[in-house]
């Protein structure tokens, strides 16, 4: 089955962690043996080969670069200018992968439909489609930089990531969007970008909803009813997105899937983390919506974690092909499963691009 993944940090893996995604997952793991700078070294799950094997022919691929004030202890760049430059380096990598025939950028509906038809009919190695997304808006030095990003192909943007940001407050922080955030939302709406509500703290989420009338989704966000943490959405937030015809992508970071996960200590097998928890989150949203039209896949695989913090029955991203059978065994129809694996996000994109 064709799969759309609404959130992959491909360029971050390539440019910050020096992973050549043209290698196989196994080759990357072998190259990282003995490395200790990150917990997920040697535990990667994503490569272009694995994506093709799993029929993941289209994804939202991110740029990400946090700007941090001097008193902010989170890792990041010391100026917005540095953060912007980092996103431009990431963009250069995407362009190089296009030249190599590995990727193709999708900017509009015509390109989307052409790409989808190619994946239906073409044989052999096909370029993976990517739509550019910005995770956290700190790299937008001033509002006019957003139009520059749009011209480069940016089609979705999340105002916040972790902590307090320039335009909104994110995960593990408390606060609203302020004057700068409202100006950003106005420009997002003017350009017709997709607003990604992922990572917005509760106050910033609701202020955003009060000040934005354009297309909105959450690329990678699970349910607070299943794991009680501010990173997750409460039912009221999920219902708000449903009411706006939004789609919510299910993430595969283990701490978002089971309670009481301790990073660096907990183990997916002993904690019982499997793709069944993804199905639990899918089902929760479907029950709130009364249908299967508002949930999809947004794995965030290799987004700062790897196999050590992923479902135990997932070795590579190709194992997403196990999800349709899991849903079928729960009574989901073939049309429901197609909605969830790709249809809902593609329908959204057909209207938004």
UniProtKB/TrEMBL annotation:
A GO molecular function assigned to this protein is:
metallodipeptidase activity
Question: What are the BP-aspect GO terms?
Answer: proteolysis
Question: Gene3D superfamilies, from UniProt?
Answer: Metal-dependent hydrolases
The UniProt entry, under Pfam families, shows: Peptidase_M19
Domain of life the protein comes from: Bacteria
| Xref: InterPro entries | Metal_Hydrolase, Pept_M19
PANTHER family annotated for this entry?
DIPEPTIDASE, MICROSOMAL DIPEPTIDASE
Q: Please report the name of this protein according to its UniProt entry.
A: Peptidase M19
């Amino acid at each position: 089955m064709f799969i759309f993944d609404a959130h992959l940090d491909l360029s971050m893996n390539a440019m910050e962690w020096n992973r050549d995604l043209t290698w196989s997952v196994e080759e990357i793991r072998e190259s990282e043996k003995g490395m200790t700078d990150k917990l997920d070294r040697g535990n990667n799950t994503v490569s272009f080969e694995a994506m093709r094997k799993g029929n993941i022919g289209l994804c939202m691929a991110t740029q990400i670069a946090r700007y941090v004030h001097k008193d902010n202890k989170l890792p990041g760049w010391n100026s917005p200018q540095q953060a912007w430059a980092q996103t431009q380096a990431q963009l250069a990598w995407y362009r190089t992968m296009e030249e190599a025939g590995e990727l193709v950028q999708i900017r509009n509906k015509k390109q989307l439909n052409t790409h989808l038809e190619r994946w239906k009919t073409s044989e052999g190695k096909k370029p993976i489609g990517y739509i550019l997304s910005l995770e956290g808006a700190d790299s937008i030095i001033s509002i006019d930089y957003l139009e520059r990003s749009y011209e480069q192909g940016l089609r979705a943007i999340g105002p916040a990531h972790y902590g307090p940001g320039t335009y909104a407050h994110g995960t593990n922080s408390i606060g609203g969007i302020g004057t700068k955030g409202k100006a950003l939302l106005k420009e997002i709406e003017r350009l017709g970008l997709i607003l990604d509500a992922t990572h917005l703290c509760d106050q910033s989420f609701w202020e955003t909803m009060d000040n934005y009338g354009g297309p909105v989704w959450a690329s990678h966000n699970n349910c607070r009813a299943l794991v009680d943490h501010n990173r997750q959405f409460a039912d009221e937030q999920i219902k708000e997105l449903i009411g706006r015809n939004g789609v919510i992508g299910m993430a595969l970071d283990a701490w978002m899937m089971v309670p009481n996960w301790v990073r660096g200590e907990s183990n997916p097998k002993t904690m019982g983390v499997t793709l069944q928890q993804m199905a639990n989150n899918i089902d929760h949203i479907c029950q709130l919506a009364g249908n299967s039209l508002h949930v999809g896949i947004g794995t965030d695989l290799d987004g700062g974690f790897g196999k050590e913090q992923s479902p135990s029955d997932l070795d590579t991203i190709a194992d997403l092909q196990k999800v349709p059978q899991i849903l079928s065994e729960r009574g989901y129809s073939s049309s429901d499963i197609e909605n969830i694996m790709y249809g809902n996000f593609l329908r959204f994109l057909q209207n938004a691009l």
